[in-house]
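Hi Y.,

Following your request, here is the sequence exactly as I used it, all 120 residues.
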Amino acid sequence: MKKIMVVDDEPDTVDLIKLVLMTEGFEVLSAYSGKECLEKLKIEQPSLILLDIMMPGMDGWEVFHKIKEEYEDIPVAILTVRDRDIDKMLGLHVLKADDYITKPFGRQELIDRVRRLIKE
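Below is the corresponding structure, written out as tokens. Let me know if you'd prefer a different format.
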């Protein structure tokens, strides 16, 4: 079973994504901050990380850099409300995120993109 880590400071968002992905047979790990994500990565190695950008404390950009420093083989998809072209360009072309998913997203869109990223 493929593990997916969802990193978002909004519990409702995490719960919704978790429900969608679990009904598709994925194991879902939750982290509600960048710090919690990095701590869990010391123990768990997910097949994919869905990472919010706008979080208090350590934002998603900083978390992304730290993940890629130590776990470069884990794909990371940015999951954010920031839908400006400049944000997408930064995420996909500068940082080299594996995907950039804007909220709100459709259930099937999320499932399809997750499956593509983990090549299921």
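The chain has a mean pLDDT of 91.

Thanks again,
Q.
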